[in-house]
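so ive been stuck on this for like two days lol. basically i have the seq below and the ligand is nicotinamide-adenine-dinucleotide, smiles is in there too. i just want the complex predicted, nothing fancy, no docking runs or whatever. if the output looks off dont worry ill sanity check it later, just need somthing to start from for the group meeting slides
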Amino acid sequence: MAKRLDGKIAIVTGSSSGNGRAIALTFAREGAKVICSDLQKSARQGGYDESIDIDTDELIRQEGGQALFLKADVTKAKDVQALVDLAVSEFGRLDIMVNNAGIFTGLNGIVEETEEAFDLTMAVNTKGVWLGCKSAITQMLEQNASASSGSRGKVINIASIGGLVGLAQEPGYCTSKGAVVNLTKQLAVDYAPERININAICPGFLETAMVRPFLEDEELNKGLHDQSPWPHLGNAQDVAYAALFLASDESRWVTGSSLVVDGGFTAR
Ligand SMILES: NC(=O)c1ccc[n+]([C@@H]2O[C@H](COP(=O)([O-])OP(=O)(O)OC[C@H]3O[C@@H](n4cnc5c(N)ncnc54)[C@H](O)[C@@H]3O)[C@@H](O)[C@H]2O)c1
């Protein structure tokens, strides 16, 4: 049976944990060849990921898929470009770029937030996405549109509901994600005529390593559940299914959108 991403070539940054790992596994299960990338190859302990003792690229191969790993720090242009170069040298093109790697340095007001924490958050969450878009779009402009979707390529930026609304005690993080939401719109305008789809996903609070410390704090955990209209919090697979839609041929006329995946958190 045909799979939704048969023959597509994808890069996923931050693929050793949480959302990135779920996206890489889901894409591979739907037939994509995946370049996995992170600061570390080994799956990050402390999340809620399945088969946590097996690296993401290895797990894909064990399931019969195709995957490679290349270490890359998304704050470094050279590293990000090396990912795109690898996709082209190994597989001939780049169909899907998922700019997922991100950090959260902790809850605090702007008075307490250090300049270092702000700079690091912006470097990873915003500049990292900008670099990923720049290298991916440069390559996508070089290649023909795929016959099945009419698209030259698809860029998916993992933002956050913190890029749409103010989340208490997250000044740097919200700044970084707001920038990703608007960069996504800006690029969509420039590259729609070139048939490149550029979209963002805005997840709410998910059970990943990033949010685990808050879920383990009884008061914060209760607060998150009380604020969620849906009876339970989301997980990385919910984000991966949204990414699958944005990567697939079905989203051929979707560009510049920010797909909210938050159990209704921001619908109030
Ligand atoms: N977990 C949530 O509730 C939530 C909500 C909204 C958005 N997000 C976003 O989803 C994305 C993934 O987060 P997650 O929850 O899976 O977190 P996570 O901490 O489980 O995984 C993030 C991964 O990114 C990698 N990474 C960090 N800095 C990097 C760098 N400079 N270069 C390359 N890789 C780097 C880490 O090593 C880690 O494997 C992030 O952009 C995050 O902001 C998460």
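The longest strand covers residues 196-203. Residues 13-14, 16-20, 38-40, 44, 47, 73-75, 100-103, 124, 128, 158, 160, 203, 205-206, 208-211 surround nicotinamide-adenine-dinucleotide (CB under 6 Å).
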